[in-house]
């Protein structure tokens, strides 16, 4: 296999996405795998260094699912629906917790996080891709 150059890497479309029905909201939403930057933002905001032992920040974990969902919901042009400021203001925290939990689980799956990271690493993800990928 040939080595890739920066231009090829930057042009590669590598983030999965999926449209999900959310009957509670009366339609569908599009969730896209988190970018490396957004994932780092979420993870860095959830951990605080305490000497040699990192610990989870309780206040950050309260909004963890909302951050996952807010940062991954995109429109038909793959532009985020919610800004970091809107997410921090707690707009999604007012929505039904079961809906946010369901969507957050899908974001984790698309992004290879949590229990899905192990499956992806083993090559056993088993989840059929929706044939979807970002085009932009």
**Number of DSSP strand runs:** 5
Can you identify the CATH class? Alpha Beta
Shape category: globular
Runs in which pLDDT lies below 50 for 5 or more consecutive residues are 125-136
- Binned, the helix content reads 40-55%
**Total of helices:** 7
Can you summarize the main beta sheet?
3 strands, antiparallel
End-to-end separation in angstroms reads: 25 Å
Q: Secondary-structure element order, as H and E?
A: HEEHEEHHEHHH
Key features of this structure:
rbstp2171, 5 strands, globular, three-stranded antiparallel β-sheet, alpha+beta, 136 residues
What can you tell me about this protein's structure?
Helices cover 43% and strands 16% of the residues. With 136 residues, it is of the alpha+beta class. The strands form 2 sheets. The chain has a 3-stranded antiparallel sheet with strand order 1-2-5. A two-stranded antiparallel ribbon has the order 3-4.
